[in-house]
């Protein structure tokens, strides 16, 4: 996300929490230094979740130490690190996600907000990207990509309104049954 975007967000009277990409090398390096230096941590929050055979330990770390970050990130007040250790099917993996924020908050609130964002990401974008194969689409001309995306959103909404939780399963169950599809939209 360009630094100009943070300026536009702040000038509109809003705040931001923005994910840091790994290609933002200087910003990532600064955040990683904080991660290893406890004196710069202003708050942290740890949760553990066990769900469907998967165990996830999540630690959110917040730092107010932004002095070494470029002043071009307008409104920047805090740096946030999400460290996840996931154990599933006997295998373990570690993941890190980094964020910058114009808010002054604590690790618990960031944990809840980021988790809710991931929930939205998983419930809509993942379905569109994986089940509906949106990223693999060869449709690229004029307004066609937006039109197809809108049609997919409508389909997802119709399936969810009819109590389908698993979109892949719903597509298999109704794909060749016009009467089911007709009943769903009438």
Short description:
The protein has helices at residues 3-11, 25-35, 107-131, 144-161, 167-174, 178-185; strands spanning 17-20, 43-51, 54-63, 78-88, 91-101.
Structural write-up:
- The longest helix is centred in the middle third of the chain and has 25 residues, at 107-131.
- The chain folds into two domains: 3-105, no CATH class; 144-185, no CATH class.
- The chain is globular and about 65 Å long.
- A hairpin with a 2-residue loop joins strand 2 (43-51) and strand 3.
- The relative contact order is 0.11.
- It has helices at residues 3-11, 25-35, 107-131, 144-161, 167-174, 178-185, and strands at 17-20, 43-51, 54-63, 78-88, 91-101.
- 42% of the residues lie in helices and 24% in strands.
- The protein has six helices and five strands; from the N terminus they run H-E-H-E-E-E-E-H-H-H-H.
- The chain is of the alpha+beta class and 186 residues long.
Layout: helices, strands, pairs:
Blueprint: H1 3-11, E1 17-20, H2 25-35, E2 43-51, E3 54-63, E4 78-88, E5 91-101, H3 107-131, H4 144-161, H5 167-174, H6 178-185
Antiparallel strand pairs: 1-5, 2-3, 3-4, 4-5
Overall average pLDDT: 86
What does the largest sheet look like?
5 strands, antiparallel
How many strand units? 5
Low-confidence stretches: none
Discrete helix count: 6
What percentage of the residues does DSSP assign to strands (E)?
Answer: 15-25%
> In whole angstroms, how far apart are the ends?
42 Å
What is the string of helix and strand elements? Answer: HEHEEEEHHHH
Q: Please indicate the count of domains.
A: 2
Helix amount: 40-55%
Form type: globular
**Which structural category fits the helices and strands?**
alpha+beta
Rg is 21 Å
Strand order of the largest sheet: 1-5-4-3-2
């Amino acid at each position: 996300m360009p630094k100009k975007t943070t300026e536009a967000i702040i000038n509109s009277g809003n705040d931001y929490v923005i994910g840091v990409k790994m290609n933002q090398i200087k910003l990532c390096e600064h955040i990683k230094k904080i991660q290893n230096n406890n004196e710069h941590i202003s708050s942290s929050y740890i949760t553990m979740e066990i769900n469907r055979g998967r165990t996830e330990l999540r630690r959110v770390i917040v730092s107010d130490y932004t002095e070494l970050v470029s002043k071009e990130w307008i409104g920047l007040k805090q740096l946030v690190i999400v460290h996840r250790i996931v154990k599933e099917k006997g295998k373990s993996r570690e993941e890190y996600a980094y964020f910058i924020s114009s808010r002054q908050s604590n690790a618990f609130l960031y944990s809840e907000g980021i988790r809710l964002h991931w929930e939205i990401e998983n419930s809509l974008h993942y379905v569109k990207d994986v089940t509906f194969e949106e990223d693999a689409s060869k449709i690229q001309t004029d307004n066609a990509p937006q039109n197809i995306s809108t049609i997919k959103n409508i389909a997802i909404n119709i399936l969810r309104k009819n109590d389908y939780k698993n979109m892949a399963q719903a597509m298999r169950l109704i794909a060749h049954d016009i009467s089911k599809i007709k009943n769903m939209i009438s």
